[in-house]
Amino acid sequence: MNGFRYKEDRWPVFIVLALTVIDFILYFTINDIAVLGGYYLLMLLPKGVICAWNHHHQHLFTFRHAFLNRGLEFVYALHTGVTTHLWRLHHVLGHHLNFLDQEQDESRWKRKDGTRMGMGEYTLNVALTAYSRGYRVGKKHPKQLSTFLIYTAITFIIVAILVWYKPVAGLMLFVLPMITSLLFTAYVTYEHHSGLDTKNEFEASYNNLDPLFNRLTGNLGYHTAHHHKQGVHWSKLPALHAEIEDRIPAHLYQKSIFTRMIGSG
């Protein structure tokens, strides 16, 4: 039986699982810190891309069966530093409900005095508070919080065992990527809403229509559409964008940091 909700998720999941297999092959076969370090640097951007797919999964679970979703989330966590239900709490039940209110937004870009954070400050602020803010949102959603706490504990225990068994490989293949991918996630989200102080949802997000960017990130560039109906599958976002694009001001289209990094557009 096909466990996927949408057939479009097959290739992204296959690629993520293939990269995970490579990680574990290297873990069990390579001890050279130079090789592991080179691989870590080589995978910085690909694992950054995986963060976008983890984000999509947290909005709309990839599989029809819970055990498959939990397994996929463990794999995602090893690449992105974001465990089961963390983004579901912090992002889906937090940021998406509060992004127009900078006093409540879990990914807020304003300081307490109302001024705009710089990119570095925002990156550290969002990354370092991700788990604590997710936990606070979870207090309003005890069932989601319970799943988050259980599977986060399981993930961290397994990672600790991997580091204990092979410290260098464990750190280079799992711990460091988890940390840097979480920082990368916060870094690239700075441009999603930063500086857009408005109560109008159609004027509160920047959009990036670059084809390569959207192919790599699952149409994350259609960000206004994503916030307009966050439960829409990523493959349907271009069509949704077409329905609302006349309500999006022209100045809210731009190349993102990520697009400039990959040299697209």
Automatic annotation (TrEMBL):
Coiled coil: none annotated. The keyword Nucleus does not apply. GO terms for biological process: lipid metabolic process. It holds the Pfam family FA_desaturase. Residues 35-252 form the Fatty acid desaturase domain. It comes from the Bacteria. Keywords: Membrane, Transmembrane, Transmembrane helix. The chain crosses the membrane at residues 12-30, 36-54, 145-165, 171-190. This is Fatty acid desaturase. It comes from Neptunomonas japonica JAMM 1380.
